Amino acid sequence: MVPNKSAVIDQETYELLRDLMGEEGFEEILSFFCSDTQQAIQNLQQAVAEQQAEYVGGICHKLKSSSKLVGANNMAELSSTLEAYTEHKNQAEATHLVQQLEAEFIRVRVQIEHLTAIS
After folding, report:
1. Which of 25, 39, 88, 92 would staple 21 via disulfide (CB 3.0–4.6 Å)?
2. Cβ neighbours of residue 3 under 8 Å, at least 6 residues apart?
3. Which one, of 86, 74, 71, 73, lies nearest residue 30 by Cα?
């Protein structure tokens, strides 16, 4: 299975997770993903502003994994790119990537709300 990188959420990954978890477990995972990611992005903004590179790396690693789980491949890629902040510590780039990650998360959350409403 090759993920669709142009989609906000890869449909195959999304459906596979739904099938594996059952409806109730699936909704729980999506709800947790949305609330946890919102908090993680706030923590990222603060960590980047305070130049806490190791903290940024840890948050991004977790975001990368959870994003892949729900099929949010663009978010996973952005998280992976930002995770490299621990090595290069480019403040301007990190700030820009956090903004992109936040914008992508908004798109993902809207897509999740849309998909759960029609299922």
Report:
1. 25
2. 10, 12, 13, 71, 73
3. 71
| pLDDT per position as a tens digit, 37-56 | 999 999 999 999 999 988 99
- What letter does residue 105 receive in the DSSP assignment? H
Nearest to 70 by CA among 1, 13, 111, 7: 13
pTM of the prediction?
A: 0.89
6 part of a folded domain: no
Structural domain boundaries, residue 109:
11-118
How many separate domains does the chain show? 1
Q: What is the CATH number of the domain that holds 67?
A: 1.20.120.160
Residue 25 within any structural domain of the chain: yes
CB neighbour list of residue 118: distance below 8 Å, 6 or more residues apart? none
Residue 68 has which token pair?
A: 């892949």
Q: Please tell me the distance from the alpha carbon of residue 75 to that of residue 38, in angstroms, as a whole number.
A: 13
